[in-house]
Amino acid sequence: MSQSTKNPAVEEKRVTISNKHGEKLVGVLHDSGSREIVAVCHGFQSTKDNTIMKKLAKALVKEGISAFRFDFAGNGDSEGTFGYGNYWREADDLHSVVEHFAGQNRVVSVILGHSKGGNVVLLYASKFKGIRTVVNISGRYTPKNGIKERLGDDFLERIKKEGFIDMKDKKGEVLYRVTEESLMDRINTDMHKACQQIDQDCSVLTIHGSADTIVPAGDASEFARVIPNHKLHIIEGADHGYRSHQTELASTVLEFVKSRLQQHDKSTTT
């Protein structure tokens, strides 16, 4: 196998990558020395330093598998402007990451995302091909769902009238602005169509918590119904952030990723 042995000497390196728009994406490479890398993608209004991102990266590298967690443009330490939509744009950011490591004679062989990041890795697999292992953690099957819970029942009327909606915290400070363009980007993102275009030889694992109140667990069943080569794992009692289920989440991811990397090694040596 091309994975390193367990508990290797691990380096954490800050890496900066330019996306197709010339914006610098900032990430952290947990480098075990393995040629293969798992790209770890954060969700909406999140960053590479989210608890799930950090714990999964550390769990992977502990098993000798390098992991790269990074901020999409407009998030965290990366350059760019935050956008409410940006689903396909973030898939392009991920492509810049894949190309960067390919240029260093390494291969991003697994892409993993949580919440909106789950959508992004599936969109990537539908557009760019080449990736044979995808992990979708709590992705939303219909992106237009969940909008009114965040923006209010009258969000369409408000945005048509004002051109934008400012989302504020309890102190009244603006967290981010939702423009009509970014809203329509989210509404028009068609996960059903994208999932139908994922290749048969791309193996997808969807993980979802049964107690998720942000994205219903029923969305996971929809992914299972549409994606050609799919495995579904429901974690009983887990919420959207897997706050009390980090261990089961990590073990489920590790089992799948290690199995897929072993299969890939066999296919390249036979």
From TrEMBL:
Gene3D superfamilies linked to this entry: alpha/beta hydrolase
Top-level taxon: Eukaryota
GO CC terms of this entry: cytosol
TM region positions: none
SUPFAM superfamilies, sorted: alpha/beta-Hydrolases (SSF53474)
Signal peptide (from-to): none
Annotated Serine aminopeptidase S33 domain residues: 34-241
Protein name per the record: Serine aminopeptidase S33 domain-containing protein
Species annotation: Linum trigynum
